[in-house]
Amino acid sequence: MDTKQILTFDLPDKVLTSLPTGAVKDTVEQLGKSIVQGVYETDAVLPREEELVEKLNVSRTVVREAVKVLCGKGLVRTARRYGSRVCPFESWNLLDPDVIRWHDPNSPRTARIYAEATDMRIIFEPEAAALAAKNASREQRDLIVAAAKGIDPKHGDAAMIGADYTFHATILQASGNLMLSQLQNIVYAVILFSYSAGRFAAPEEKVVQRLHVGVAEAIDNGEADLARKRMHDMLKANQAMAREFAAIAK
Amino acid sequence: MDTKQILTFDLPDKVLTSLPTGAVKDTVEQLGKSIVQGVYETDAVLPREEELVEKLNVSRTVVREAVKVLCGKGLVRTARRYGSRVCPFESWNLLDPDVIRWHDPNSPRTARIYAEATDMRIIFEPEAAALAAKNASREQRDLIVAAAKGIDPKHGDAAMIGADYTFHATILQASGNLMLSQLQNIVYAVILFSYSAGRFAAPEEKVVQRLHVGVAEAIDNGEADLARKRMHDMLKANQAMAREFAAIAK
DNA sequence: TTTTCAATATTTGTCGGACAATTACTGAAT
DNA sequence: ATTCAGTAATTGTCCGACAAATATTGAAAA
């Protein structure tokens, strides 16, 4: 693999939503986002099926199938004569790719989720890095190294985010654990959050790249303990910067 | 709280399934289990909607709503003229409570999932224990201690499983991180798997109880580092025993 | 006035049928 | 053997009707 050629990385066009394109998918997206972003508060009743039919210009069939999908993700609960109500926050499937994605990075309401997601990353990603150092394929090691080098401001924000995500997602995949691998949705959400509204530490971008390359090289060399430590230190530093930024923003 | 009174713990009757009781829920359960347990292999087409209508004795409306829910969990994918096909394993939402629960503990096919779930537990439960030592409320600390003491063979299998689950679930809740808390579904599945078919190490039950009590006391005393270490050692020991058992079974 | 209880209204749940849209499949023509 | 148009099969969407459950209401009773 020619790493010289791989300098930019696209964002995943479809981080996931298994529903096929169509009216149901659009309706799920719209209702899901509205709920997650707080348009309807906890225990609030959604508009009646009939009203949603008018508002969204779809048939009742579509509305019902969409609401059922949201039930399956723990967002709403329905009953006869009771309406469809928003479930309390704790019962949402926060690890569902869609539910994660629907959070609005710019809403102060979701700040808690991102803080907790960051804590999750600090727990899982160091171990994933250690596993990747042991289990990654040749191609995965190359990709991890190339992505780390691609985290460079000179490529623009989009390419930087893409490289950042590719780096972390590939490490999770290379761990060989499917559940661990699925946490890349959390990583993706946190990265988007970090970069949106200029939350990333602009002046220190070179430091960020250097830290990523350090982790990548440890993985590439199969040094599990070193990879674990470097990933941990990097995420901790990142968390500290984010907290500092949040404090200033207030 | 009188810990003397809390000696037995019930299993959670409803570990979760947000769908309300009714034909749709039953259909989701049946189809979901069939897929997860391997009745339909990857890329296999499900019976046509019309056939499912006959087989399950429900209307097409119900079948469609159920299939849509399964789409939302990444299990199936539908298209016109294409049928509803089982998605490849990697795209399943393995962290979804229902998807976890639908795995059959007695199927050799799902052994991999339980092995990976066990690896996951070793990663996040020690950290959860450390967080719980810092953040747990008085009631949670009492409950954790009581549950640990309740892991006693003299109460029978069901009560033992209940205490075991209560112990781990309460620790995750006490961590204060909602995402971490939702991983209790993984713990529940692994515990059921461990106990089913006599996989647990019967002669050493007292050791198991002692180890749990050790973790509980560390949490109760607010000793985060000690709690982390003890939880880690306990899970590692448990994993080693499980592997030994699996090797013998072959 | 408060409580109880039956009647009512409202909302989702389920059913059935019809047609649209997409695409895998078939068979003829090249 | 290949291409291509036609056909058939399957899910997608719409509609209308009624069933089931329950929140609400109002009257009767204490």
UniProtKB/TrEMBL annotation, chains A, B:
<dbReference type="Pfam" id="PF00392">
    <property type="entry name" value="GntR"/>
</dbReference>
<dbReference type="InterPro" id="IPR036390">
    <property type="entry name" value="WH_DNA-bd_sf"/>
</dbReference>
<feature type="domain" description="HTH gntR-type">
    <location>
        <begin position="21"/>
        <end position="89"/>
    </location>
</feature>
<keyword id="KW-0238">DNA-binding</keyword>
<keyword id="KW-0805">Transcription regulation</keyword>
<protein>
    <submittedName>
        <fullName>FCD domain-containing protein</fullName>
    </submittedName>
</protein>
<dbReference type="InterPro" id="IPR011711">
    <property type="entry name" value="GntR_C"/>
</dbReference>
<dbReference type="InterPro" id="IPR000524">
    <property type="entry name" value="Tscrpt_reg_HTH_GntR"/>
</dbReference>
<dbReference type="InterPro" id="IPR008920">
    <property type="entry name" value="TF_FadR/GntR_C"/>
</dbReference>
<dbReference type="Pfam" id="PF07729">
    <property type="entry name" value="FCD"/>
</dbReference>
<dbReference type="InterPro" id="IPR036388">
    <property type="entry name" value="WH-like_DNA-bd_sf"/>
</dbReference>
<keyword id="KW-0804">Transcription</keyword>
